[in-house]
């Protein structure tokens, strides 16, 4: 992942000359401050790749949750307890389309970053804890591992995008702290299962949020709201 | 008083009835929220199924509260979604939020509450089907025509802003087909279909799916008629090609049918059967005696004029037991064995010889007039009666050895039939005969002779009659007939006479294969038999009749003198069953079918094969 992103950056110079000739009508973007034409092309690629990653992460998260629920917690009504229990709920993210469209794209990008950062820690621990489960389910474990890796890649890409869209301004790295680790390690089987259930439930939701936001941003930034 | 009591009773009764009716009602059953759907991830609707209504009008209310809130709300819209539904508008819809929804059923008797349903709009998105499905057949130049399918996303879904990303799927089929052909179209709102059957009417449908949601239902069918692409010219070309290929197929079938056998034999050559070395049965059958004999390394047959000296052979047969057969040698007889000892050891295939001890003892020791004591393979000829100047014609056809002892029939004993040597058994070189067979015949003859002698000592016929066997060797190149010429011995017992035996001498063999037999004038016989004066000799070239089986009566050509003699002799014969039989046969033969007569070089030949067929 790191290599890929650096390759992208390195190709900027190469594309500069060709893009001067090729690039014609594209959405006028106020977000490339230097006015370099190549900025748009690479941004489009960055966004395309980001959307692909976020879409993939949510798909994996949804599958992982469904498998876990079916296998361990089906019919036990854990959902009733998993109300308002995600650690990222404190982050004031838009709750519907109108709110999301009203928010500025920079803020929206920042929100995406915050959510992504908030999940670094939980994903890491999720992998270790799922591995430690007795009868570690392979499907769930492999998905957890991949989600963790993709999430890291997406975070890097998003930081690059932000660097292009909003260069120069580096905001404080705000994110929600996850404190659910002790719950994952509890001795009580039921409590532990619920902790996992809750974590996976929140992961599914937040990955969907990120995916939705990035698609909104892509259509807005790259295609001028004309996807 | 009594009226009051009566009315009281009636009242009470009515009261009881009312109470009973009232007891039939009950609180409503528990409703059940069975489905919640959002068509565009901005609004959603929930539907419930009411429980038993308890016989009373029931009021349903839907209440909910959201995740992170404590306020309980009631359904904002019971109408839009239809009966027993609740529609949540945009204002009331939050994404990534769990709704806890319950339905209350209330009637006069009571109320009941459904189980709460936890709904997150994020995961219940099911859009409407795409709209404006249009079909168009496009005919680009230099390319095959194709069907261009276009559609629009459902009206409510916001794809432009990216709020929802839709993926499409189309399916089509010819009108009468049973199976749909499905194609995934991705995120594009158009599709090109290339593989179409011209002249068919196609039905097309499309549906869509949000990036993380459910597939919509299929859109209503759109139909289009594909124009027939084939021009008349194409059809003509195909008809022509079909006709041409049919003709070619028929020609091939005909050729295979005609030449099938030869082709098969070419591919699978027939396995050759066991063959006697140097002997070819097919040549034998076809009458190619020359080729056959040449395989043996034989000389030409029939012998040419040069071979006349070869043919001066005769046998002296005496009825006296002491008399020995004196085989005559031909001078220039080349080839195996004049004498038993001269047998070519190398060329012994199938040919027995009198060298074989058993045969030798039997034959050579018996001095009887055994006509079968042949040393000369050429012609075995039986000395005939005085009148028996027989000329026989070589009928250079198949070899067969048949003979008969006529006098056997007189004795009543069964006439033995010389063993019929199959052509295949004749592996001797021409003009050599199968000595072994001869010897066998001789032995059998001897036995018969002995019997005959014993039975009728008075007759000296023992030695007289000999069955002459005639072997005919394939000589000519003539194909065709497998005629067997017979040398006659036919003599019957009637011919037995005390006269001294006559010898018939083979005078010569004509070029066309006719044997000329000379009546031997002298006792010593004419050895050389060089072309004697034909005038003094009588040529027996005519077959008068066939007697018994396989005995030809040859007649002197010019005259019927001998014929008369023969006939008389026939009549003199003591009647015997077989004699009668022979007469019958003769009579039948006298009217031999004319078609059995063969004309060859002025000589009449009867084809014994005809007789054979008629006999058997």
The value of Rg of chain B in angstroms is 60 Å
What do the pLDDT scores of chain A average to?
86
CATH superfamily of the domain at 131-230 in chain B: Immunoglobulins
- Percent helix of chain B: 10-25%
The tally of strands of chain B reads: 21
Distance between the termini of chain B: 144 Å
- The backbone outline of chain A, from C-alpha atoms, is elongated
Number of strand segments of chain A: 0
Most extensive chain interface and residues per partner: A-B, 30 and 25 residues
- Which structural category fits the helices and strands of chain B? alpha+beta
CATH uppermost class of chain A:
Mainly Alpha
Return the CATH topology of the domain at 131-230 in chain B. Answer: Immunoglobulin-like
**Structural Rg of chain A:** 19 Å
Helical element count of chain B? Answer: 11
Characterize the largest beta sheet of chain B: strand count, sense, and whether it forms a barrel.
Answer: 5 strands, antiparallel
Oligomer type: heterodimer
The percent range for helix content of chain A is: 55-70%
Low-pLDDT stretches of chain B: 322-353, 356-436, 452-498, 522-537, 559-603
Distance from N terminus to C terminus of chain A (CA atoms, Å) equals 27 Å
CATH class bucket of the domain at 131-230 in chain B: Mainly Beta
Mean pLDDT of chain B: 67
